[in-house]
Amino acid sequence: MPLPKPPRRLLLLPLLAATLLLSGCNAVLLSPSGDVAIQQRNLIIVSTALMLLIIVPVIFFILLFAWRYRASNQRDDYDPEWSHSTRIELMIWSAPLVIIIALGAITWVGTHKLDPYRPLDRLAAGHSVPANLKPLEVDVVSMDWKWLFIYPELGVATVNELAAPVDRPLQFKLTSSTVMNAFFVPALAGMIYTMPGMETQLNAVINKTGTYQGMSANYSGAGFSDMNFKFYGMSTGDFDKWVAQVRSGGDTLDRKAYLELDKPSKRDPVRHYGHVEAGLYRVILNRCVDSKHMCLDQMAAIDERGGMGLPGMANVASELPEQLRLGLADSPARKYVGAICTARNPAGAVGVDGEVS
Q1: Residue 165 phi/psi, 5° resolution?
Q2: Of 5, 22, 242, 344, whose CB neighbour count within 10 A is largest?
Q3: What is the CA angle 189-190-192, rounded to 5?
């Protein structure tokens, strides 16, 4: 006995449920406000359309063949000896080949053009970057579990709040104080990772004023879900007012304040720093904020000069932090320099004071 057919109204329930679920979505990826994000959106749409040129016909013919050659179809001829059709073979292989070539070419060109390290060559479609327009540099540090934004040219910093003028190139330099993370403002540009002791870059621009959502897009521990921030796209005048407000009402961010800020915390409020110690981002990047450890770039310089012999090593001491040269006789840095120099010249090693012993 065949089962009764369900009422047609029941067939509409899945469609209604999907409509209700999608009604609360904010499709910011498909409607971004930054030129880089717009180009990335266009690349996704074109790539999807090219793939659908294969997927849709394949699905159609699967359904067609299943219907036409069903067991109950007695009207068409049954030919069990059929094995080959040149016309079908050409269609099956040539169409996907053309699509793959087109998709590969578009993706190759698009991904190189949208390289996050590449400086912008346009502010929007048909609007190139003026020769005298300097990018605004923002140094980004992902922490447990908050975001620190330093504006080195302006001498200010913020926590969990980012602002930028519209139609001005933005150059982000990003690192992490602890674990690997990911900086993501969907309306601005694609996701970029941050890693301790390493620097990544992102060049982007925001073209519309507004308030946008920024987030951490890489799980980093207990406070990850609240590691969000607001990104404000402002007119030039409003951005200048915002900078003046931060500068007048903010605290001072020096090494001591940073070490306190670096302690893990959840749901941190927005903070403003009206003055930032010069070179703070460099020591954050090189893992030597506390001045008790040699910076990574100084270690790299020692490694490089280790191949230059003793004269090259003798010049390293003058570039070490004063705390290392004067007050840290048993520091790893002194032992490191001395070990390298002893290996190269057993008769005498260069100490951190620059003298041969």
Answers
A1: -75, 150
A2: 242
A3: 115
Contact 154, 278 (CB under 8 A): no
CB hemisphere CA count around 337 (13 angstroms)? 31
Residue 36's nearest CA partner among 218, 196, 164, 180 is 164
Q: Which residue in 105, 161, 172, 185 sits closest to 136, CA to CA?
A: 172
- The closest of 210, 300, 321, 348 to 255, measured between CA atoms, is 321
Residue 159: phi, psi to the nearest 5? -120, 125
Q: Which residues contact 232 (CB under 8 A, 6 or more apart)?
A: 161, 162, 163, 164, 210, 211, 212, 242
Tell how far CA 185 is from the center of its chain: 9
Q: How would you list the strands of the sheet with 136-143, edge to edge?
A: 200-204, 170-176, 136-143, 146-151, 156-159, 271-276, 251-253
Helix (H, G, I), strand (E, B) or coil at 276: strand
- pLDDT tens string 164-219: 999 999 999 999 999 999 999 999 999 999 999 999 999 999 999 999 999 999 99
Please give the full DSSP string across 80-134, using - where no structure is assigned. Answer: TT----HHHHHHHHHHHHHHHHHHHHHHHHHHHHT-TTSPPSEEETTEEPPTT-P
Place of tokens 């954050």: 284
Nearest to 279 by CA among 269, 294, 266, 289: 289
Which residues, in sequence order, are CB contacts of 322 under 8 Å at separation 6+?
none
* Nearest alpha-carbon partner for 166 in 233, 260, 261, 250: 233
Output the CA–CA distances (angstroms, integers) from residue 176 to 10, 196, 199, 328, in the order listed: 52, 4, 8, 27
Tell me the pLDDT tens digit for each residue of 274-283: 999 999 999 9
The 10s digit of each residue's pLDDT in 294-330 is 899 888 888 877 644 444 444 555 555 554 444 444 4
- CA atoms of 329 and 96, how far apart (whole Å): 68
DSSP letters, 160-199, are SEEEEETTS-EEEEEEESSS-EEEE-TTT---EEE-BT--
- State residue 330 phi and psi, 5-degree precision: -105, 20
- Secondary structure class of 254 (helix, strand, coil): coil
